Amino acid sequence: MKTLFFTIALFTTVMISAQTYETENKQIYQEILNGQVEELSLTGEQKQPFIDLSNKYFDKIIETRQSDVSRMSKFKTLKKLQEEKDTEVENMLSKEQFKKYKELQKKNRNKLKTVYKQRNG
Fold first, then answer.
1. Which of 5, 70, 81, 99 has its CA 20 to 30 A from that of 38?
2. What is the domain range of residue 46?
């Protein structure tokens, strides 16, 4: 009986931890997306398509990260997804906006590295 209780408690803890991690990822993503929308000075016509495109690729990235494939396969898939997104974003934005978008990507990548290092010690 103690083993069953311990197993249930452990499972519950793991599930809560996973939900917290997923919620944190979504919050960080939303902060980054809101910052991009603001800093890129998107027009009314650009804003919603940009948000929709970003959400589409965010979902694909999460799906890839949660998959059971090898790390190398995940890396290749993530790189391909980023290239596809960049192509679509480039077609959506002006040259100046796209240049700013690429700068924001670098800045956000460094921010995310810091967050993940803090999480993982």
1. 81
2. 2-115
Task: Say if 120 falls within a structural domain.
Answer: no
DSSP 42-69: --HHHHHHHHHHHHHHHHHHHHHHTSSS
Contacts 24+ apart (CB under 8 A), 99-104: 100/39, 100/40, 101/36, 101/40, 104/35, 104/36, 104/39, 104/40
- Which pTM does this prediction carry? 0.75
In a domain, 83, yes or no: yes
> Could you read off the pLDDT of 80-106 as tens digits, one per residue?
999 999 999 999 999 999 999 999 999
8 Å CB contact between 29 and 112: no
The answer to whether position 67 is within a domain reads yes
Q: Is residue 53 part of a domain?
A: yes
